[in-house]
Amino acid sequence: MASGSSVKSTKRKETKAAKSASPGKKAAKANGAHRPPPLSAEERLDLYRQMLLIRRFEERAGQMYGMGLIGGFCHLYIGQEAVVVGMQACVQPQDSVITSYRDHGHMLACGAEPKEIMAELTGRRGGSSGGKGGSMHMFAADRKFYGGNGIVGAQVSIGTGLGFAAKYRQSDGVSLTYFGDGAVNQGQVHESFNMASLWSLPVVYVIENNKYGMGTSIERASATGDLYRIADELKIPGRQVDGMDVEAVKEAGGDAIARCRAGNGPYILEMLTYRYRGHSMSDPAKYRSKEEVARVRSEQDPITNLYARLMEDSQASEETLKQIDTEVRAVAADAAEFAQNSPEPDPAELYSDVLMQA
Length: 358
Hints:
7 strands; globular; five-stranded parallel sheet; two-stranded antiparallel sheet
């Protein structure tokens, strides 16, 4: 009886926490309800197109997973598009990017070809890594995109190393290191923070706080709810941002990157965002209610809200926005067709790019 009561109590607490975990409202409160000046129509339309491309690409990837064309794990980015699109709008060619295994959107935002990404998802020869990396291990060194990393929090150490390399080579580059709330309390993350602060490395740590590390609410996993302050004792400043507002992300990202580029050391951006799907395609997401997901999607969707601003400010017509949707749907469909028609890797490739030492 006591055990059952405990379970019910825990569920009530999680439900209460979930209801209070409104990404936009919490970030607005933290930032004094500050909203950046509106962007031009051209800038907004570019951001809208990029977010919509990621959304339609991920929807198609989910369909292909259901058809058995994508194997293994597949972590979709649906709902979080504003974070990477807003951040990548601020980078320069010498900047580097690294992220976790939820990486398709980041690869697209770095300018990689959708066809190559979808072919990689399906394990085909035309993929960005020849079909040998798959969903969790995207990689494009020519675009300074260093993964797609399958170990929780591992990319933070590598991203810190990328910051060290930029400073050592005096390249004027900044390392954008993305990771989720579920990785925040990993040991190597704090070791990396310490090193970055000690050596004043140009690293922007982007915490994509989507409220659930796998199936565990952030309220149950972290002793502090303000993740942007997690390195206060290491003298790394930070800021909490509405990660569902691409314009707010772009403004905060631009400030943080400029600060790092000026030699002021690392910075933390906590993006309050939300994923609409489960942790991966195999996750039924029973740890949260359908009502919670529907509420966030109806009130705070980054694409829908930018659509509304474009219409309200007379920066685009409904016809123009529908045409963009038609175009990106076609891009996603072409990527899927290319992936299905691309041949599988030659069996001999199993041993290429593998270091063997006697």
